[in-house]
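thread from #wetlab-drylab

HS: before we spend reagent money on co-crystallization trials with adenosine-5'-triphosphate, can we at least see a predicted complex? here's what I'd submit
DV: go for it
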Amino acid sequence: MSNQPLMIVTSLAELRSARLLLDGTVGFVPTMGYLHEGHVSLARRAREECDHVVVSIFVNPTQFGPNEDLSKYPRDLDHDLHLLEAAGVNLVWTPTPDVMYPPGFATWVEVEGLTEPLEGASRPGHFRGVTTVVSKLFNAVQPTKAYFGQKDAQQAAVIRKMTRDLDFPVEVVVCPTVREADGLAMSSRNSYLSPEERQAATVLFRSLSAARSAYERGERSAEPLRGIMSGVIASEPLAKMQYVSVADYDTLEELETVTGKTLLSLAVLLGKTRLIDNFVLG
Ligand SMILES: Nc1ncnc2c1ncn2[C@@H]1O[C@H](COP(=O)(O)OP(=O)(O)OP(=O)(O)O)[C@@H](O)[C@H]1O
Ligand SMILES: [Mg+2]
């Protein structure tokens, strides 16, 4: 089935008709477009594991805060479609905001607890937008498996929880973070960085790597690991730390001592651009 031409639809009715024609398993990759090798790796994994691959491209307004510039979000649909066609994607859904949120829209999906720390604390309302739109995308696409990136570790955890709690018949698959040669995690937002900020942006990877090295040398106290991460960020003049975290991988609660599976994560501002990254230990 992989050599069928790429089909592009916008309305919900078109998406539903196209979906009805897909027999067998469907892998789904939700994105906000301006695609890079990270997104493509998710589509390729879906291609390997499923009979058909559906990708959505939707810059979801409800997951942007009032001070986050939605109107400046980068877009390049032609380039996105070329990448997706090369990756063997069958169907691309590009809903407009009024397809997803028609006038009078008033229903929200919210995951409690897991959404409170880290990204949730820095970006109030962000996860409510994410879980609401992913619920709507799941309902429309009805995928067998849905693919998310480890770069957004908390998002992956929140989607997993939502999928379990609301009994979506979808298997959530989390794929490794794809990085540039110098370690910077690929992200559509990297395109906002000036050349100087782009160089400084390796500070996220350097910070995580330093903490992981200390862990590998036997450091198990969380506070020194946080200190190592924030120290590396402080050494980079163009970078401003938003948070560093050493948390339980499943609950995202901050740890005193690292014992089991642990998430090292951080958010850093480079100028106006906010970047995140994480490593998993144990
Ligand atoms: N470097 C990466 N490696 C693997 N998956 C990724 C990477 N970057 C993004 N993804 C995943 O792609 C999916 C769509 O993400 P999205 O379209 O927001 O891309 P993004 O690069 O994270 O954009 P932004 O920089 O605006 O956050 C998410 O599941 C996300 O985790
Ligand atoms: Mg993103």
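DV: The pocket of adenosine-5'-triphosphate (ligand 1) is lined by residues 31-32, 38-39, 41-42, 148-149, 151-152, 175, 177-178, 185-189 (CB under 6 Å).
HS: ok that's useful, forwarding to the group
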